[in-house]
TrEMBL record:
Entries under SUPFAM superfamilies matching the protein: Methyl-accepting chemotaxis protein (MCP) signaling domain
Listed name of the protein: Methyl-accepting chemotaxis protein
Record InterPro entries: dCache_1 (IPR033479), HAMP_dom (IPR003660), MCPsignal_dom (IPR004089)
Positions of the HAMP domain: 329-381
Domain Methyl-accepting transducer span(s) in chain numbering: 407-650
UniProt membrane topology term: Multi-pass membrane protein
Organism lineage string: Bacteria, Bacillati, Bacillota, Bacilli, Bacillales
TM region positions: 27-49, 305-332
Compartment list: Cell membrane
Family: Belongs to the methyl-accepting chemotaxis (MCP) protein family.
Keywords: Cell membrane, Chemotaxis, Membrane, Transducer, Transmembrane, Transmembrane helix
Species of origin: Paenibacillus xanthanilyticus
Amino acid sequence: MRSVVREKHAERQPVWRRIFQSIGFKIGLIMVASIVAFVAASGMISYGIAKRALEKKVVAAYGQTAQQTSQKLDFLYKTYDGLLLKMMVDEKLADSVTALADHASDSPAYASLADDIDLLLQDYMYSDQSITSIELLLMDGTLFPTKSGLLKNRSYGEDAWFQSIVKADGQSVWLGSNLPDNRNTNPTFSVGRVIRGAGQTGGYCVMLIDVDLSAMGEQISGVEMGEGTVQVISPGGSIVYDKKVGGNGGPSQLAMPAELMEKTEGSYADPAGKQQIVFAQSVINGWKIVGYIPFSDLYKETEDMFGAIAVVLVSACAASIIIATFTARFIGRPLVRMRDLMRQGAEGDLSVRTHAKAADEIGQLGASFDRMMGNIGALVEQTRMSAQEVLTTAHSLASASASTELAAKDVAAATADIAKGGEELALGAERGKDLTDEAMRQTDDMMAASGQMSAAASDVIEASERGTASMRKLREKTAHSEEVIQAVTEKAESLNAAAASIGKVLALLNDIMKQTNILSLNAAIEASRAGSAGKGFMVVADEVRQLADRSRLSIEEIRGLTGTIERGVGETAAMLSAAQPVFREQLAAVQEADELFRQTGGSMEAFRRQLHRVSTSAEVLEQIQHSLVEAMMGVSAISEQSLASSEEVASQSAEQLGISADLVALSERLQKLSNELKDSLNRFA
């Protein structure tokens, strides 16, 4: 049905749209695109190959031009280098310059030698029109003023260019720009050298030749690098000559790759991608001749080739369109006729035939179409007969399915009742199992508490035994302390009596000291009466009196110490007497605590025996509960098994009921399809 709608919609579309959707147009478009793509790819590949080959040839040609230009400049450089060598072997010049040191600057001989030197230098300068000046400097940098020189009259010993010439030690040094104090207004380049005589190790002067830059320009003027320019660049990176500027160009912007720095010739593409650069290095002074060639000059010859490729591409496109048009018509017309015949067959006319006679693929397709239409006609007739039989069978199947559906409903209802009873039994078993588990948990808690109480009772008994032993030791130590205090008290009383005896001895000594003092006084009196005869006795009497005084002081000190000892001993005895009743009370308290520890130990032993009996009863109860749990689990398992069986039966019954319903629906669908098939086949009658 949908295909018919699509065909009617396609017939209502514009002609141009149907052309675009036709197979002939698509084949022609593929052919055109393929031919154009092939020609374009071939042309672009050829263009790329030719472009690269032409680029190599042009770069090689420009590189050869740069090398030839460098060789021409080397010939120019050799001219001035040879002129310096000629000055070096000029004996007259050497003699004149060396003789100057032997004469004063204001002497006639000095003036004569200066004129000779000036004439010689002018001869050298006039030998080449490109030489603008020749400078003569002494080895300390002092300028020798000559008519051929243009430098200012000063010392150049500290200038970098002069020091570089001196360090070269007889080798030529090339300077690429005008010296700062050179009065020459034209751009120049210079070459300098230390001049020394034959067989001498040191030089006697420095000779500097300034050459007009136009001499280099004449050698480069005929060199062409397309639309690009040509430069001469010194090893220091400064531009000696620029063809576009016509003179010195300042610092060079040349960025040469590192791998080409040591090479004397080569080429590379500018990093900016706008030009190709070729260079060649002089073997005389190391200056590079550099050519800048824009890429547009390299590829100028390829523009004609690109135009030819474009013409070929347009011609190939036109030819492919013509070929595609004939191909589309050759293939499209038979296919259109085949489409119309197939449309008639789809509308019910099975007698249509193509009667194709061509031997190509389209003719074979027509013959296959004829055979297909014949087979479809036979198949339609056979299907019509089968559809009638299917319709009869569908009626019988619908009746049987209706009966099966009623039986399945009854089985499902009975199974649902069985499943409900099994579910209630399982729920009861689950509740009994939960109650038993709770009782087991309570019993386990009670056993755990009993065990903890038993352990605590054991700890208490053990602590009571340790306390009893400690109290026994404390009682013994307290009794021993009482005995020690008693002994110390007795010793203190003895010490107090000894201190009293010391006091009596001190009193006796004090009396002796007093009598000695009186005797010494009397002896002194008698000695004074005796006059000079009693002087010795007088000395003895003084010594005895001093001894008596010292004895008195010692006795007083001993009396003070003894008093202190008596007071300390008395206080100690008093404190020990006061502590003795306290120790007696402590001993009584220790004995009482010992008795309490013994009673506590006996009570805890009895409590532990009671806990042991409770634990034994709890273990028996736990075994009974385990048996009850196993029984409840058995009942629960049986209930669950019964419930699972009931649910399985119910599920199967429901499934059977569903199958029965599906079977009825399929029977009705089969009956409907049979009617539809019968109606469809009637179209091809």
